[in-house]
Design a protein that fits this description.
Layout (H helix, E strand, L loop, with lengths): L2 E5 L2 E4 L4 E8 L6 E8 L6 E6 L5 E3 L7 E6 L4 E6 L8 E12 L2 E6 L3 E6 L1
Parallel strand pairs: 2-11
Antiparallel strand pairs: 1-3, 3-8, 4-5, 4-9, 5-6, 7-8, 9-10, 9-11
């Protein structure tokens, strides 16, 4: 069973930075995307950034330039560097691993979430 463990959330002032980490364990991830989503109460979970198995980083348009996703495959770890944080970035951030069975079939796995709070 895949397990994802996030770390690095917390409270930061507007304009500050945080780095989230997520370590995956429990299975083989030979063909998988890893990334981050976020959710605030009353809203749907939304994509933040994904680092694909092919080596491409994809971002929500509104976050380009402030957030950077990276991946260390030998450590089964994905990172999210968040700079110039704004109060509207406050959310629970979830790590995601999408393990592809074939091109149109996959399993999604989620971490427990880590709270990021940005004060004004």
């Amino acid at each position: 069973q895949v397990q994802l463990v996030e770390s690095g959330g917390g409270l930061v002032q507007a304009g500050g930075s945080l780095r989230l980490s997520c370590v995956a364990s429990g299975s083989s991830f030979s063909i998988s995307d890893m990334g981050w989503y976020r959710q605030v109460p009353g809203k749907q979970r939304e994509l933040v950034a994904v680092f694909t198995s092919g080596g491409t980083a994809n971002y929500a348009d509104s976050l380009k330039g402030r957030f950077t996703v990276s991946r260390h495959d030998s450590k089964n770890t994905v990172y999210l560097q968040m700079n110039s944080l704004k109060p509207e970035d406050t959310a629970v951030y979830y790590c995601n691993l999408r393990n592809y069975i074939n091109y149109d079939t996959w399993n999604d796995y989620w971490g427990q979430g880590t709270q990021v709070t940005v004060s004004s």
